[in-house]
Amino acid sequence: MAGLDPLIHAPARLQVMTTLSAVSEAEFATLREALEVSDSVLSKHLSALAAAGYVRLRKGALSGRRTTWISMTGNGRKALRGHVTALRQMIDLVD
After folding, report:
1. Any idea where the Winged helix DNA-binding domain is (predicted)?
2. Angle at which helices 11-20 and 39-51 pack, to 10 degrees?
3. Strand locations in the chain, DSSP E?
4. DSSP state, 45?
5. pLDDT tens sequence across 59-87
6. What are the φ/ψ torsions at residue 55 (nearest 5 degrees)?
7. Which residues 6+ apart lie within 8 Å of 39 measured at CB?
8. Beta strand 65-72 with 26-27: parallel, antiparallel or unpaired?
9. CA 66 from chain center: how many Å?
10. pTM for this predicted structure
11. CA nearest 34: which of 47, 18, 50, 49?
């Protein structure tokens, strides 16, 4: 169906995007725990979303340890809105 974004459609990526839509940024560990996935799985999904320009990764230190913060870009918000609209249209077809 038109409007579905195959990059966002994967359940873990959709969960990343919807989680990020509610905050200005999230720490990597917070996202990992919310999604209940391993570091490597989350890293793979974030890399794909970052390559598409949907999220931005910012590295830094917190309490003396290295960490990564993730935020959604304007393009990511637009893509998520389009994807959600397409999902709603599909749901409206169900009777």
Report:
1. 13-91
2. 70
3. 26-27, 55-62, 65-72
4. H
5. 998 788 899 999 999 999 999 999 999 99
6. -135, 160
7. 28, 32
8. antiparallel
9. 21
10. 0.89
11. 18
Question: How do the domains of the chain map onto residue ranges?
Answer: 6-93
- How far is C-alpha 57 from the chain's CA centre? 11
pLDDT of amino acid 68: 96
Percent of the chain at pLDDT exceeding 90: 84
In degrees and rounded to multiples of 5, residue 60 shows phi and psi of -170, -165
- For residue 92, the Cα-to-chain-centroid distance in whole angstroms is 24
When the candidates are 3.30.70.100, 2.170.190.11, 1.10.10.10, 1.20.1250.20, the CATH number that belongs to 6-93 is: 1.10.10.10
In this model, does residue 1 exceed pLDDT 70?
no
Structure tokens at 94: 């169900």
> Does the pLDDT of residue 95 top 70, yes or no?
no
